[in-house]
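Hi R.,

As promised on Friday, here is the backbone we talked about, encoded as structure tokens. Could you run it through your design pipeline when you get a chance and send me back a sequence?
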């Protein structure tokens, strides 16, 4: 996933995640990192910091509790992301099927003077389907369904 999204999931800044990556906690490739690796790296860093910091035992317990809380919160968010990935895949499949149905339309059976108009309509419909899929995915990602909600 994108580094900014991973940062939002674990509650840290993207710059802090880059620092952890430079420390060898996980790898970042072209601005993307495995969420599982990021979580593991953040938790390991928190635990290491808790064990190194010997000021008080309560501070260490608090940091361990924060790491456990982060792990639990991240697991819940990961489940949501998996559900969103499934929804994105379903939208892609629905769009592909709709476009495939357009391609199966018997355009050759239409009278010659109307064929060009039918093909143009089909191409326009294909563009609209692709845009609707993009809009639906954006709505899922942002939570703003105003562009995909039916007009009332």
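Update: got your reply. Pasting your designed sequence below so it's all in one thread:
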């Amino acid at each position: 996933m994108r580094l900014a999204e991973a940062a939002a999931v674990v509650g840290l800044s993207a710059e802090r995640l880059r620092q952890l990556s430079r420390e060898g906690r996980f790898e970042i490739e072209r601005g993307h990192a495995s969420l599982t690796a990021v979580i593991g790296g953040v938790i390991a860093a928190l635990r290491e910091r808790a064990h190194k910091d010997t000021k008080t035992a309560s501070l260490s317990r608090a940091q361990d509790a924060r790491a456990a809380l982060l792990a639990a919160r991240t697991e819940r968010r990961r489940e949501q992301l998996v559900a969103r990935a499934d929804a994105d895949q379903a939208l892609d499949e629905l769009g592909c099927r709709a476009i495939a149905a357009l391609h199966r339309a018997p355009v050759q059976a239409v009278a010659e003077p109307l064929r060009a108009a039918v093909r143009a309509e089909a191409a326009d419909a294909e563009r609209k389907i692709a845009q609707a899929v993009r809009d639906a995915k954006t709505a899922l990602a942002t939570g703003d369904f105003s562009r995909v909600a039916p007009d009332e």
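One thing I noticed while checking it: The CA atoms of residues 24 and 131 lie 40 Å apart.

Thanks again,
M.
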